[in-house]
Specification:
The structure is a homopentamer of 91-residue chains. Chain A is 0% helix and 47% strand. Chain A has 91 residues and is mostly beta strands. A five-stranded mixed β-barrel of chain A has the order 1-2-3-5-4.
């Protein structure tokens, strides 16, 4: 999974019927030191994540293993809100 | 998902029978500031996207979760036309 | 999908039984201006592509959605021969 | 699969119900000479890996082929603890 | 698929039960001119590949389409030993 931070939203009126009611969040990827890497992704929110929160993202077919995204044309999902993460050992 | 802009088309007469009638769009990837990243993708259009429109792309097996692309040898689909996207928080 | 050009072949006698009779093509990736990007891929040919022809490649599980590649250990397939592609809009 | 080393943990209280009880490890990727590459991943632990241990990671839908991760929104799993790895031939 | 060369092995005693008896090979990726690219992968051997041999690798869910790897947490498999590969056309 990837660590990221919610930095924005995407609005899309015209879309696949299976996407109705989904919230598309723009996620800035974070590195181990909580800095942005410069990459981003658009993910469906399945846990009620808010702006500025750190999240975990699952991608690919794994992004369709939530109740909300099952069988939908979605390849990225926010499946957890991160309380904190620690680096313990990196010599 | 990835944010992109429709910048071209691909014509292919000789192809897998399952691809008959599909429209192949060339999508230039966009960064958070709506600039092209230099990367592109060829995606099947499932929402009637036109040249110059901003779109969302789903990739991999997720690209086969639309009615049009189900069980087809397609790994990228335009599944939404973007009205707009905003970056709210990126300190 | 990815745009590429058939630039070579791979011969492999000892292989998974499910691959018997398949033709493995080396595909040089093309950018938007029909130049090689420097990356390549080995793909199974499902449409009778010849050397020098431009092709479309589907990857991952989508590469197994042709009659030839169904349930085979193949992650890349040539599923269309490109007649031409045009860039219409890239300001 | 990818070789990595367990370097940290992620805590997430609010998450998809299917993730309850899973341990999220931060894995620093290793190159052939056992140095960190600078990339990392967050993977579910299915083998009881501890800090500083070298591990093998399976990604994508393959990460859901363990008893613990079956049908869960997880795209990366630690599926083996590495005793050692050797480079025998690289001329 | 990717062209590579068998350059090493990984030993792992503690692992997912589904991986019992599998041989994990370290594969150095090759470019079109048979030079190492610097990237590598750990793949399960399904064809009896030896050190120094050139091989083809299938990745992702396609890596689980051999008899040996079916339903196992494996995302990379050696599914062919390469006799030779030729570049015919690259102007």
């Amino acid at each position: 999974m990837i660590l990221g931070k919610v930095i924005g939203s995407v609005w899309a009126t015209k879309k696949d019927p299976g996407l109705e009611g989904m919230k598309f969040l723009i996620i800035g990827y974070l590195d181990e030191d909580e800095n942005f890497t410069g990459d981003y992704d658009v993910a469906v929110d399945s846990v009620g994540a808010g702006y500025g929160e750190q999240v975990l993202i699952a991608k690919g077919s794994s992004a369709r293993q939530t109740k909300l995204t099952h069988n939908r044309p979605v390849d990225s999902v926010v499946m957890a809100i991160v309380d904190r993460y620690d680096i313990h050992d990196k010599e």
